[in-house]
Amino acid sequence: QAAKPHVVVLATGGTIAGAGASAANSATYSAAKVPVDKLLAGLPELGQVARVSGEQVFQIASESFTNDHLLTLARRVSALSKQADVNGIVVTHGTDTLEETAYFLNLVVRTSKPIVVVGSMRPGTALSADGALNLYDAVSVAASQDAAGKGVLVTMNDEIQSGRDVSKSINIKTEAFKSQWGPLGMVVEGRNYWFRAPVKRHTNASEFNIDEIQSLPAVDIVYGYSNMNTTGIEAYGKAGVKALIHAGTGNGSVAAQAVPALRAVRASGVQVIRAARVPDGFVLRNAEQPDDQYDWVVSHDLRPQKARILAMVALTKAQDAKSLQRIFWEY
Ligand SMILES: NC(=O)C[C@H](N)C(=O)O
């Protein structure tokens, strides 16, 4: 019998490592409690699909992820991906910022080996906990050659999603992760079934490489709403951010009073990236605002939090708005 593929599980915390006081506690619990060894020991079925080893990288709730956590994790994933005895990598993660980490890894880890990020909506102590099956699915996909070269993936609720496209779109429910472009495939009983593949640049085809990135620039987000004031825009400008994501209304529209404030920060050197607070759809260049004239960038279909990740990565190589816009179209 051929040796099973070796999958390394890098644990970072989240609800998938959470524990509540009673089985009835599906929403009231502490995240990031159960160590990776215990998670894996509780799931002997993993042995049917892979030889699994675990590493505890962090033990935190994902809302507390920082750029330092992103860099540390990506470096570890990159190093493991270069090891001949590693066939696939799974990252267990809280769901709140899982999509940001998945997209970051998708942009900066140069490998074609499967990388799967996974979390859960209920702690393992809850009735109908979803973490065990999500993790079993993640390890199954990471162990499969069919998952190679498809970018960083997310397995939640039986679906295989692109880490670039997927977002946490519902809290409370277990069917929380959605992409407007649909899942790439499904996992059933440890087998993966594929129906589409991503077309944007990722992993092996990326021009970015975590091995060459020492730090990430400051990029923040301002939210658009009726009666919006410009205090946030001005404060971020003064704080010296390198780019500001404007999570605009509708098609990334910008309130009349916010336009001069954004033009002023742009004139001081801050890149302005026009995204939308609307979850789906995409932002068109030079519609709503004259982006060419203002030297602004549009986020394409990336939600503001994903636009922030791409802006940070892009700014490690590109400084002008034209190059940034090229990167936003391609990734
Ligand atoms: N379901 C979860 O994992 C939520 C948790 N707050 C986290 O992101 O760590």
Automatic annotation (TrEMBL):
What is the native source organism of this protein? Curvibacter microcysteis
Membrane-traversing stretches? none
Q: Asparaginase/glutaminase C-terminal domain spans which residues? A: 219-328
Molecular function terms, GO-annotated: asparaginase activity
Q: Which family does it belong to?
A: Belongs to the asparaginase 1 family.
Xref: InterPro entries: AsnASE_II, Asp/glu_Ase-like_sf, Asparaginase/glutaminase-like, Asparaginase/glutaminase_AS1, Asparaginase/glutaminase_AS2, Asparaginase_C, L-asparaginase_C, L-asparaginase_N
Q: Where is the active site?
A: 15, 95
Per its record, how is this protein called by name? Type II asparaginase
Q: What highest taxon heads this organism's lineage?
A: Bacteria
Domain L-asparaginase N-terminal residues, every copy:
6-197
Q: Which UniProt keywords apply?
A: Hydrolase, Signal
Q: What is its EC number?
A: 3.5.1.1
